[in-house]
Write a structure and sequence with these properties.
The chain has two domains: 113 residues, no CATH class; 285 residues, Alkaline Phosphatase, subunit A (3-Layer(aba) Sandwich). Helix 9 runs antiparallel to helix 10 and helix 10 runs parallel beside helix 12. The chain has 13 helices and 13 strands. The relative contact order is 0.22. The protein has a seven-stranded mixed β-sheet with strand order 5-10-3-11-12-4-13, sandwiched between helices. Strands 1-2 form a two-stranded antiparallel ribbon. Strands 6-7 form a two-stranded antiparallel ribbon. Helices cover 32% and strands 13% of the residues. The two termini are 30 Å apart. The chain is an alpha/beta fold.
Length: 455
């Protein structure tokens, strides 16, 4: 029996304009879905009927090569010092070397490697060199997947950023800012503008519409009440029909939602502190690490509630020159990458790389701790790509790119391995991931030359 297009396996709490999506509950899942397999449905699901999720996480300025790559092979590989925070997650990881993005290389276009790195990362295409409105690159992988599986969720895709949002003007050696500040492209000429404000992401996920979200946000600010207070009676009614395990899941989920909302409120209560040449947007944490963690928490909730199955998150744009005073690094990230002839700058860049890996590890641990409808963890039912469009930022290379693939893909991936791809287009890997996400009919993607089957 085919799986229904929209199985009634999750619910919504509603009240006063609020729509709160809930996790998938086994108590509400039809037995036909629990017993169905992925082959019976055109969209990829696990053998237990849970949906697959995928997220693409972009880290700026490549990685300090000497401290990045593991040693050994297969599941016996040893993580590098940069990747040590992922040690407890090794059985859920694949580290892949030998993946290239040749369309990010200069070719006839000359300088502009950072803009090309961002633009090419999820498209596998060469960006037209222009600082004007005639931008063109390619449709990104996340949007190709969303075009086929996005109809199953409230949001076809979710685009997040912990950086500024720029859609026009010149940014890198004659390239439009649209290339450097976006990795998701709905069409070759239309980027999907990411949202950097965690409050607005929260309202988008849990509000019933833009106007209602604005009214609800202002009402809660005045009354200092949580979004959950509006749906308590509906939640109580729902609990009565859940199993003990699902009631625990509901309590855990609602506690997590309230925790995130309180953190957002706390961050926005502090007055803006004027800084030279920097205007901090309201509702965005001053601390870069806190901003990233908050966005990851919202992404976890989006996957947990099946609000979306496809997401992108830019930790920062390529070429970012952010400093990291909490790491005792006063120099800008980008500037440091061009001082690699000295050991001290190399170690500082590796320290920044590790900082981003620590944020990733926290996110992956959160996914692993969250149960899905089929009893597996969200991490087991996800494919999380973490990487950059630049390899060596000192030399602006785009071969042997740093890339981590986390998760089990609902059983379709083979984690716990260090893989040498041997110098093939990264688009080959992305084409295979699209297959596993149920995006059918893709014969090629970007500059792919085939599928990458070692995963």
């Amino acid at each position: 029996m085919p799986i229904p297009s929209h199985p009634s396996r999750r619910g919504f709490l509603r009240g006063l304009g609020i729509t709160l999506a809930l996790p998938a509950f086994e108590s509400l899942l039809p037995r036909s879905v629990l017993g169905a397999g992925a082959a019976e449905h055109p969209l990829a699901v696990t053998s237990g009927g849970a949906p697959l999720r995928t997220a693409f996480i972009y880290v700026p300025n490549g990685a300090q090569q000497n401290y990045w790559f593991p040693t050994g092979e297969g599941c016996d590989f040893q993580l590098s010092t940069t990747m040590e925070p992922l040690a407890g997650l090794k059985s859920h990881l694949q580290v892949i070397r030998g993946l290239d993005h040749q369309h990010a290389e200069p070719g006839p276009d000359g300088a502009g490697d950072h803009a090309r790195a961002n633009a090419t990362f999820l498209t596998g295409c060469r960006a037209r060199k222009t600082a004007g409105s005639d931008i063109a690159v390619g449709t990104s992988l996340d949007q190709m997947i969303a075009g086929q599986v996005g109809g199953e969720t409230r949001f076809a895709s979710l685009e997040l950023s912990c950086d500024a949002v720029r859609k026009s003007g010149g940014c890198d050696s004659g390239y439009s800012c649209a290339y450097q500040f976006n990795i998701s492209w709905r069409t070759p000429t239309s980027p999907m503008t990411p949202e950097p404000n965690p409050r607005l992401v929260f309202e988008r996920l849990f509000g019933s519409g833009d106007d209602a979200a604005g009214r609800n946000r202002e009402q809660r600010r005045v009354e200092r009440r949580s979004i959950l207070d509006f749906v308590q009676s509906d939640a109580a009614a729902l609990q009565a029909g859940l199993s003990r395990q699902d009631r625990h899941k509901l309590d855990e989920y609602l506690t997590g939602v309230r925790s995130i909302e309180r953190r957002i409120e706390r961050e926005s209560q502090f007055p803006d502190i004027p800084r030279p040449d920097l205007q901090v947007p309201a509702d965005v944490p001053d601390d870069h690490g806190a901003h990233i963690d908050l966005m990851f928490d919202l992404l976890t909730l989006a996957f947990q509630t099946d609000s979306t199955r496809v997401a992108t998150l830019m930790m920062a744009h390529d070429g970012s020159n952010r400093s990291f005073p909490h790491l005792d690094i006063s120099e800008g990230h980008h500037n440091l990458t061009h001082e690699m002839e000295q050991e001290e700058p190399r170690q500082k860049v590796a320290k920044i790389d590790r900082f981003y890996i620590e944020r990733l590890a926290r996110f992956l641990n959160s996914l692993h701790a969250t149960r899905d409808v089929d009893g597996r963890s969200l991490l087991e039912n996800s494919m999380i790509v973490y990487g950059s469009g630049i390899a060596d930022a000192n030399r602006h290379t785009h071969s042997n790119l740093p890339l981590i693939l986390a998760g089990h893909g609902g059983g379709y991936l083979q984690p716990c391995q260090y893989v040498d791809a041997g110098g093939v287009p990264m688009s080959n890997l992305f084409l295979s991931l699209a297959d596993r996400m149920g995006a059918i009919g893709l014969d090629r993607f970007g500059d792919s030359t085939g599928r990458f089957e070692k995963i």
